[in-house]
């Protein structure tokens, strides 16, 4: 029997970003004892980096906004591949989640009449993003943390222990979801990053809220935590990932200096009037309006400019097209030799707003460019280019309950969950997604746990815990001894090669031959990753942490490459050079990844063969009342003739 510290809770939430914290608050409010585990310090999750705002159709700036318009925009942005029930729930519930945040103490920017201010963003018909300058994520996390502290204070009064029903385990990494022989969730296995000590937390319900996968790519806006852990944990537990080919390349990341390449330049810069120009000074986005969006966007610079002050009688400028369109346009301009000196294009706000207003509305951007690139954005343009930003694909979940398909007791919410955003996410729709589905995941995880009789609580098998421990120790040569250490691979080298390969071969523009090459490369990297070796001890050892994260990045990268190879069309975040058109038949198809050998124990998950099996699954037809929200002409661009006539 392994000697591992073990605790018992009702619900375990893996991840302390917006989705995880909202889930934990809900589970605790339902009376459950809830443990939250996070890799970084509490409060340092990725959500903190969110800049532009939370999308919710409160109608504070334009009263014509409502959930139906938000739903329509979200479906258009995702090119109709969204799980429509998720998009519906999201649009309906987002305003309540924002008002709830305000009630819990969030201090949003205000309109002149004192309402929560809302700003324009790409793909949103009306100003819809509730914001706090360009530091919205910070306020969101601060508010959720404050709510958690207030719940803990209640528990202090009631039980004399502030962590009696809600406890955060920070700087801990989960490496396995544990299950019973009967395939129910039984808890998680992980390690403390500082001490290297292993732990088990037993719980009948586990909510994955681990965020995205950006660290598999070389240029990314994502932080070190985004190694696809939750995606991999779900796969390894027997769950499925849906539509992993859809990776969002945000059009505007910094391109210079090299040390900060990829850091995000918020879309608010364009929402607040910033324009994109090429090296010839041309506002090139007017040349890139696709047919499906043509009637919704301005035809001339004059019309686009008038829209900022008179949106009811003018159409929006094409700088505010959905992100996939803008990223492809920038990529094409640079390829055509009309890029900026450092391989991007120019984003200019300095000629569009007074300096004082720029400093007030975009304080972080002003600071970021001044400090990192010595560029004063109130006086000169920024240089920007695409950066890997967000993954639309993720754990296949039930839209109402956030339960992961096929694994009783497993739930997923936030960026790790798939479906909601279809083939492309609109800016601002992630923060609202975290709150809407974080709450739902917490609620249904709590109900699931509460429904189990105490005696029927699932228990993890000691053998599985031993295997999880052996897997985690392998980089120290625990399995192969001195012989395997002799041939040890450096985890940092493997990571760099993975990032290079994914960026070059499965990046913003994709081709069949290159993706096949990537898959061969991934098989080689996986075999080498088995020999990833580290020196020293388990006490804070970043090389060891990376060696363990590699399993997740390789698994998730294989899902992305396999699905991208299979989908022979271009849609949203997936662009095929060899299949440039969107194909209405493909809209009916979800690509679903599962582990090839579902009985895979930790010790056998490094097969030299591909680990992932890919299936095509037909998308469920849109409900009639939701279809009726669109004009027939518009639907004809996305739906097949058969669907339109049925
Ligand atoms: P996160 O906030 O990333 O939290 C993930 C948590 O999981 C972390 O606590 C992490 O430590 C933990 N974790 C991960 N793996 C493990 C493991 N193995 N064990 C234990 N813990 C683990 N979206 C918007 O809607 N509006 C915006 O304005 C906006 N701006 C953005 C700006 C930037 C620079 C970036 C990068 C993204 C932005 N986004 C925005 C996207 C949005 O911020 C993210 O999609 C969202 O915050 C993800 O939240 P989450 O709760 O799913 O994950």
TrEMBL record:
<dbReference type="Pfam" id="PF00890">
    <property type="entry name" value="FAD_binding_2"/>
</dbReference>
<dbReference type="GO" id="GO:0008177">
    <property type="term" value="F:succinate dehydrogenase (quinone) activity"/>
</dbReference>
<dbReference type="GO" id="GO:0033765">
    <property type="term" value="F:steroid dehydrogenase activity, acting on the CH-CH group of donors"/>
</dbReference>
<keyword id="KW-0274">FAD</keyword>
<feature type="active site" description="Proton acceptor">
    <location>
        <position position="323"/>
    </location>
</feature>
<feature type="domain" description="FAD-dependent oxidoreductase 2 FAD-binding">
    <location>
        <begin position="10"/>
        <end position="431"/>
    </location>
</feature>
<keyword id="KW-0285">Flavoprotein</keyword>
<dbReference type="InterPro" id="IPR030664">
    <property type="entry name" value="SdhA/FrdA/AprA"/>
</dbReference>
<dbReference type="InterPro" id="IPR015939">
    <property type="entry name" value="Fum_Rdtase/Succ_DH_flav-like_C"/>
</dbReference>
<protein>
    <submittedName>
        <fullName>Succinate dehydrogenase / fumarate reductase flavoprotein subunit</fullName>
        <ecNumber>1.3.5.1</ecNumber>
        <ecNumber>1.3.5.4</ecNumber>
    </submittedName>
</protein>
<dbReference type="InterPro" id="IPR036188">
    <property type="entry name" value="FAD/NAD-bd_sf"/>
</dbReference>
<dbReference type="Pfam" id="PF02910">
    <property type="entry name" value="Succ_DH_flav_C"/>
</dbReference>
<feature type="domain" description="Fumarate reductase/succinate dehydrogenase flavoprotein-like C-terminal">
    <location>
        <begin position="495"/>
        <end position="604"/>
    </location>
</feature>
<dbReference type="InterPro" id="IPR003953">
    <property type="entry name" value="FAD-dep_OxRdtase_2_FAD-bd"/>
</dbReference>
<dbReference type="InterPro" id="IPR027477">
    <property type="entry name" value="Succ_DH/fumarate_Rdtase_cat_sf"/>
</dbReference>
<dbReference type="InterPro" id="IPR037099">
    <property type="entry name" value="Fum_R/Succ_DH_flav-like_C_sf"/>
</dbReference>
<keyword id="KW-0560">Oxidoreductase</keyword>
């Amino acid at each position: 029997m392994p000697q591992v510290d073990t605790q018992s809770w009702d619900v375990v939430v893996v991840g302390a970003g917006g989705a995880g914290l909202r889930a934990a608050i809900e589970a605790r409010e339902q009376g459950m004892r809830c443990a939250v585990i996070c890799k970084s310090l509490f409060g340092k999750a990725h959500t903190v980096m969110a800049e532009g705002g939370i999308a919710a159709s409160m109608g504070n700036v334009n009263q014509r906004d409502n959930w139906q318009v938000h739903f329509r925009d979200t479906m258009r942005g995702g090119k109709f591949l969204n799980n429509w029930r998720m998009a519906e729930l999201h649009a309906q519930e987002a305003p309540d989640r924002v008002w709830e945040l305000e009630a819990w103490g969030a201090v949003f920017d205000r309109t002149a009449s004192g309402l929560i201010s809302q700003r324009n963003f790409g793909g949103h018909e009306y100003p819809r993003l509730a914001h706090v300058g360009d530091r919205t994520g910070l306020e969101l996390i601060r508010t959720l943390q404050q709510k958690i502290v207030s719940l803990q204070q209640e528990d202090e009064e009631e039980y004399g222990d502030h962590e009696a029903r809600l406890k955060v385990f920070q700087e801990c990494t989960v490496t396995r979801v544990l299950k019973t022989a009967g395939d129910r969730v039984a808890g998680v296995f992980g390690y403390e990053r500082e001490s290297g000590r292993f732990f088990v937390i037993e719980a009948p319900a586990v909510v994955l809220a681990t965020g995205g996968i950006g660290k598999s790519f070389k240029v990314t806006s994502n932080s070190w935590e985004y190694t696809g852990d939750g995606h991999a944990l779900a796969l390894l537990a027997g769950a499925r990932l849906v539509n992993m080919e859809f990776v969002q390349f945000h059009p505007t990341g910094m391109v210079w200096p090299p040390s900060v390449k990829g850091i995000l330049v918020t879309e608010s810069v364009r929402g607040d009037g910033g324009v994109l120009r090429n090296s010839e000074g041309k506002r090139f986005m007017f040349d890139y309006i696709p047919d499906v969006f043509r009637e919704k966007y301005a035809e001339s610079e004059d019309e686009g400019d008038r829209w900022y002050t008179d949106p009811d009688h003018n159409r929006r400028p094409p700088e505010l097209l959905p992100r996939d369109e803008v990223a492809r346009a920038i990529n094409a301009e640079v390829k055509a030799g009309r890029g900026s000196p450092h391989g991007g294009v120019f984003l200019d706000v300095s000629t569009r707003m007074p300096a004082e207003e720029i400093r007030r509305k975009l304080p972080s951007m002003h600071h970021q460019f001044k400090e990192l690139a010595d560029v004063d954005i109130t006086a000169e343009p920024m240089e920007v280019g695409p950066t890997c930003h967000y993954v639309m694909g993720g754990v296949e979940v039930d839209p109402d309950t956030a339960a992961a398909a096929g694994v009783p007791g497993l739930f997923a919410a936030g960026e790790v969950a798939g479906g909601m955003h279809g083939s492309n996410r609109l800016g601002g729709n992630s923060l609202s997604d975290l709150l809407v589905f974080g709450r739902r995941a917490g609620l249904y995880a709590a109900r699931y746990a509460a429904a189990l009789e105490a005696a029927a609580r699932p228990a993890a098998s000691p053998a599985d815990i031993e295997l999880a421990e052996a897997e985690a120790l392998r980089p120290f040569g625990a399995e192969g001894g001195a012989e395997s250490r002799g041939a040890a691979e450096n985890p940092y080298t493997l990571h760099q090669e993975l990032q290079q390969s994914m960026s070059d071969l499965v990046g913003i523009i994709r081709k069949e031959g290159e993706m096949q090459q990537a898959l061969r490369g991934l098989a080689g990297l996986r075999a080498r990753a088995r020999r990833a070796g580290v020196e020293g001890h388990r006490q804070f050892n970043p090389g060891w942490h990376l060696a363990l994260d590699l399993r997740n990045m390789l698994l998730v990268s294989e899902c992305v490459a396999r699905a991208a190879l299979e989908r022979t069309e271009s849609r949203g975040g997936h662009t095929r050079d060899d299949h440039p058109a969107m194909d209405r038949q493909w809209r009916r198809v979800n690509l679903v990844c599962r582990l090839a050998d579902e009985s895979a124990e930790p010790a056998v998950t490094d097969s030299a063969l591909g680990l992932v099996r890919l299936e095509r699954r037909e998308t469920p037809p849109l409900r009639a009342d939701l279809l009726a929200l669109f004009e027939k002409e518009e639907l004809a661009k996305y739906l097949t003739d058969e669907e339109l006539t049925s």
